[in-house]
Specification:
- The structure is a homodimer of 345-residue chains.
- Chain A has 345 residues and is of the alpha/beta class.
- Chain A has three domains: 44 residues, 434 Repressor (Amino-terminal Domain); 119 residues, Rossmann fold (3-Layer(aba) Sandwich), CATH 3.40.50; 129 residues, 3-Layer(aba) Sandwich (Rossmann fold), CATH 3.40.50.2300.
- Helix content of chain A is 42%, strand content 15%.
- Chain A has a six-stranded parallel sheet. The first copy, chain A, has a six-stranded mixed sheet with strand order 7-6-8-9-10-12, with helices on both faces.
- In chain A, helix 5 links the parallel strand 1 and strand 2.
- At the A-B interface, helix 4, helix 5, strand 2, helix 6 and helix 11 of A face helix 4, helix 5, strand 2, helix 6 and helix 11 of B.
- Chain A binds a DNA duplex (16 and 16 nucleotides) through helix 2 and helix 4.
DNA sequence: CTGAAAGCGCTTACAG
DNA sequence: CTGAAAGCGCTTACAG
């Protein structure tokens, strides 16, 4: 219960002023070797650790980044969060994660909390089109970078991956396998990834003169339950689709649940593909064809952009390509169904 | 770039002293209705938000909890972290997560960082037997609670689940299916969950007069790669096991990778079971039999214990039971192999 | 009910 | 190279 030593205690023990202690702690050049030695000895023997709270108040920097993501339980965001933390640590920053759970109100709660704690910068993957709070923070000059999703019309660097080419590849793959009735489980239209993936899908279909009727666009929210619900709707259609493309991996999980609950089989009865690849997709029944993002690189790039901004350099937006990973959930890649265990990648 | 308003600005705008502003902000009873109204109006019009850093320095509390877990990428810990954050938020605390990645040095880094930031209390799932830093923090009186894993001989409340009964059920299930050569992929012996699960497994086997030879104990580290490596070793044995029980879900993933790489089939060639259940296990090929922990409840209980400790009440250790979820990865539950899609739970 | 003042633990011009 | 002093933005006895 020994309340920890303060800089005063160290100064007293070393026989110097607190200013000198502070200088050696911050490796300020003008300290005599003798003073330095005595201070270091005192620090050691007292087990002194500077109070980061006091330092932050004084210097007006917390060396902390805030990360507000849509859903920690989504393996994509978990990996993103991990990569963010690693890069931040390498650059001398800590990160506080806020989980918005796809709820704008929770997102605002976390943004406000992070701002109150005076984080040096904010990384956010917005759940919606931008609340007054978020827009206010941007206007107030809070260093910010959007990652994965962004808010159109707001002047903030964006680090994301472009899935258009991969979605074209996916549609080509599906078309080659003979699928013509293609449906999508979309994310919320208020998110960029929600609307972009639908747009890219529609454009890719157009190349084959295939329409994307409204009945084949299911409105999900990036969480498993919505994937389940939407898929049930598709299966109830007079003319169900041949393929369901889930705009994220959790909705794909929900789709699998729904298909299985009906006693149907993938890809025999209905094919499935997902945006965002995860390790488990190799082992699902069947292995799931997915579009993989360079998640680690995105996290790293986002932190670098934010730290550039914080430290007065010019941050850059970054767009990295995603790529298609073909497995067996849309049918056998070649000819009639065989038992080949093909693992592309 | 408007540097945010301070309490002084509010006081000036409201025509009162900063003390009065502070009082209304902290809902101190003795403030006149008139003063309160003027302060609130000033707060509103200036968009004032108290500086949490300054408040923390003054009150010596940050309303922040630290959570140091072994591996965020492990879905079990992700769910635990989420539950911890939810309960903490409900009680008015924020949480900073440190990811130790099963490395004692990283664990120490995070503990030190959290301590420097003066978190009010620490929740930890220790990666090892306890570093001098961790033991020192306990001795210094840092409010602490262990969750999932703990350090023997250290007087800190523990919130965890007891897998013994579930492991007995698992072994009974395996025995009933005719399996006699049972192997385990263990976690690090330095962790309690690492050693306990092996002990419980050995004890359960003893009830059937089955030995657990050293060759059937593979040393893993709770991460996927080790599960892969250990499983390869098992398969190379002159007499490979009938069943592999992975002590966590990531090592089970690695085991599946290894089995598939050999072109073998679960459960036909080798059966598989895992500690820690995850949603994907329903959809793997085959669905994986697993032991499920009440993860959400553990997170909640851990936060409550820690907050009890922080706020001067007496914290209690909590042990919750885990339970077996039978699926198809150990063979058909009844009679010869059928195609029944049984989903227990 | 209210304000002036001290103080939380630091850092940093300023003067020497 | 060093120390005294101011100040970061709050809270809280203390006195009135």
């Amino acid at each position: 219960m020994s309340s920890s030593a303060s800089i005063k205690d160290v100064a007293a023990a070393a026989g110097v002023s607190v200013a000198t202690v502070s200088r050696v702690l911050n490796s300020h050049p003008s300290v005599s070797p003798d003073a330095r030695t005595r201070v270091l000895a005192a620090v050691e023997s007292l087990g002194y650790r500077p109070n980061a709270v006091a330092r932050s108040l004084r210097t007006d920097q917390t060396r902390t980044l805030g990360l507000v993501i849509s859903d920690v339980l989504n393996p994509y965001f978990t990996e993103l969060a991990r990569s963010v933390e690693e890069e931040a640590r390498a650059l001398g920053y800590s990160v506080i994660i806020g989980n918005a759970d796809e709820r704008p109100d929770l997102q605002d709660h976390h943004v406000q909390n992070l701002l109150d704690r005076r984080i040096d910068g904010l990384l956010v993957s917005p759940t919606d089109g931008g609340s007054p709070l978020m827009l206010g923070a941007v206007r107030a000059g809070t260093p910010m970078v959007f990652v994965d999703r962004w808010i159109p019309g707001v002047d903030v660097p964006v680090v994301r991956s472009d899935g258009r080419a991969a979605i074209r590849d996916l549609v080509a793959h599906l078309h080659r396998l003979g699928h013509r009735r293609l449906a999508i489980i979309a994310g919320p239209a208020a998110t960029t990834t929600g609307s972009e993936r639908v747009d890219a899908f529609r454009e890719a279909l157009a190349r084959y003169a295939i329409e994307l009727p409204d009945a084949y666009i299911g409105q999900g929210d990036f969480q498993a339950d919505s994937g389940r619900r939407v898929t049930e709707g598709f299966l109830d259609l007079p003319e169900p689709p041949d393929v369901v493309f889930a705009a994220d991996n959790l909705m794909a999980l929900g789709a699998l649940d729904a298909v299985r609950a009906r006693g149907l089989r993938v890809p025999h009865d209905i094919a499935l593909a997902a945006f965002d690849d995860i390790p488990w997709f190799v082992h699902t029944d069947p292995p799931v064809t997915a579009i993989a993002q360079p998640t680690k690189d995105l996290g790293r790039a986002a932190v670098r952009a934010l730290v550039d901004r914080i430290e007065g350099r010019v941050p850059e937006s970054v767009t990295l390509p995603a790529h298609l990973v073909v497995r067996r959930s849309c049918g056998e890649p070649s000819g009639p169904r065989t038992s080949t265990e093909r693992s592309t990648r």
